[in-house]
């Protein structure tokens, strides 16, 4: 992966709907060359998909929460299909610490969140944090360009 690939990835993370012509202008290549690079990045599993970013509140999902869960490893085969089928689960991560699972969920109301937590508790103890506000929304991975890498190396 070179600096052009990193620039293409950064641009696509900014807006996955940028036209090829715009991307090509930004990286000083032809549209077919950019298309070939994007296809290679997809084939290599670096670009894994394209998604619309939506406002959950505008869609009626006023409650975002993080739920920690203690899960016995023997329950994983039963738990993973269950949680995968729950449309309100935005993320499910295996984590270190007192709890083994961290879920990010969105619900229209605290009553629906409470019902979901009740179902989760068949798998283990939970701890829930409701989000009041988000200072840094989900964003892409920052890929330093060569100039930044050189600057960092010089400052060390």
TrEMBL record:
Entry GO CC: cytosol
Keyword vocabulary terms for this entry: DNA-binding, Transcription, Transcription regulation
Record-level GO BP terms: response to amino acid
GO MF entries: sequence-specific DNA binding
Gene3D superfamilies cross-referenced by the UniProt entry: 3.30.70.920, Winged helix-like DNA-binding domain superfamily/Winged helix DNA-binding domain (1.10.10.10)
CDD domains: HTH_ARSR
Location of the HTH asnC-type domain: 1-62
Protein's UniProt keywords contain DNA-binding: yes
Transmembrane segments: none
Protein name as catalogued: Lrp/AsnC family transcriptional regulator
């Amino acid at each position: 992966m070179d600096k052009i690939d990193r620039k293409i990835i950064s641009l696509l993370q900014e807006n996955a709907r940028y036209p090829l012509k715009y991307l090509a202008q930004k990286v000083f290549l032809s549209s077919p060359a950019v298309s070939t690079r994007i296809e290679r990045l997809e084939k290599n599993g670096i670009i894994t998909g394209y998604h619309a970013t939506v406002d959950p509140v505008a869609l009626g999902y006023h409650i975002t929460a993080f739920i920690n869960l203690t899960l016995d490893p023997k329950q994983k085969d039963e738990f993973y299909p269950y949680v995968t089928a729950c449309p309100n689960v935005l993320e499910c991560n295996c984590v270190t610490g007192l709890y083994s699972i961290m879920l990010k969920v969105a619900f229209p109301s605290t009553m629906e969140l409470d019902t979901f937590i009740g179902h989760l508790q068949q798998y283990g103890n939970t701890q829930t944090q409701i989000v009041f506000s988000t200072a840094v929304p989900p964003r892409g991975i920052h890929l330093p360009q060569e100039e930044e890498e050189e600057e960092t190396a010089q400052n060390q």
